[in-house]
Specification:
Elements lengths: L2 E5 L12 H7 L4 E3 L8 H11 L2 E6 L19 H18 L3 E3 L11 H21 L3 E4 L15 H11 L4 E6 H7 L3 H8 L3 E6 L15 H10 L5 E4 L26
Parallel strand pairs: 1-2, 1-8, 2-3, 3-4, 4-5, 5-6, 6-7, 7-8
Length: about 260
């Protein structure tokens, strides 16, 4: 049976970030994930996690200058030192939360960028970061993201992501398989999941075309979940969708998978 993690950057948005841990636990989640926790101290985030009695499955490394369009630093040749500082900060948060996985966000190609230079930088940065993470007992993930949602994103092909992981050859560098992005970029989901399962260490879901919950869009998620079960995937599946209504109202589909609200005392 799939194990689901609530993405706190998409769900329970009517609550302050640190209160979303308890909100997720109250709805029956045993794990959470999120994008960027850096507006709060690592101690504060870890405290919220412990108070909720929940674990953190995944979060993202710092993205750079988000307000000015940066979406990660790993592929940007002029930001190598900033990338290393960002990873050091991510490792600090991972240690505080005992979180095993960090998504290393690739970045957006600046206008006129040299693709070959970006690729060389990306490979070097990932190899360095994977070595650092190995000594800390952490897994690094890379995630292809579709260019409809993030125009110009450097890593937008699952085949290329597989090649990057294979070429670097670090056992703790793995694939973050977002079913929503895979459908938009490639389609033919079941065959792609079957082929790339050896590389997958974390899964995320949402339903195109509007990034909604299962049951509200074009993907038949019961079949997708059955596929992951059939292939022996036992990791977390992150619910990274935008609810059509309230978060709680969007969770009807998940009750069949054992994620049920805690009983009030």
């Amino acid at each position: 049976m799939p194990r689901f993690a609530a993405n706190l950057s998409f769900l329970f948005l009517d609550e302050p970030f640190l209160d979303r841990f308890t909100a997720a636990a109250d709805q029956g989640f045993q794990a959470v994930e999120f994008m960027f926790p850096y507006e709060h101290s690592s101690a504060a985030v870890a405290s919220a996690m412990r108070a909720a009695g929940i674990q953190v499955a995944l979060f993202n490394a710092p993205p750079g200058d988000w307000a000015n369009g940066e979406r990660g630093l790993a592929s940007l040749p002029n930001r190598r030192q900033d990338f290393r500082a960002a990873m050091a900060r991510a490792f600090e948060y991972a240690e505080a939360m005992n979180c095993p996985r960090i998504h290393v966000v690739a970045g957006v190609a600046p206008a006129g960028a040299d693709r070959r230079a970006m690729e060389a930088c990306y490979m070097d940065n990932l190899a360095w970061a994977a070595e650092q993470a190995s000594g800390l007992g952490r897994i690094l993930l890379i995630e292809p993201i579709n260019r409809r949602d993030v125009p110009g994103f450097f890593l937008s092909d699952f085949d290329f992501a597989e090649k990057v992981i294979a070429d670097i050859g670090a056992p703790n560098l793995r694939l973050q398989f977002d079913v929503y992005h895979a459908q938009i970029i490639h389609g033919d989901l079941v065959k792609r999941i079957e082929r790339q399962m050896p590389w997958i260490d974390h899964v995320q879901i949402a339903n195109p075309p509007d990034r909604r919950e299962p049951g509200n869009g074009e993907i038949e998620y019961r079949y997708i979940f059955d596929t992951f079960d059939r292939l022996g995937y036992d990791g977390w599946i992150g619910c990274e969708y935008r609810p059509a209504g309230s978060t709680v109202d969007s969770l009807g589909w998940i009750r069949d998978y054992g994620v049920v609200p805690k009983k009030k005392t």
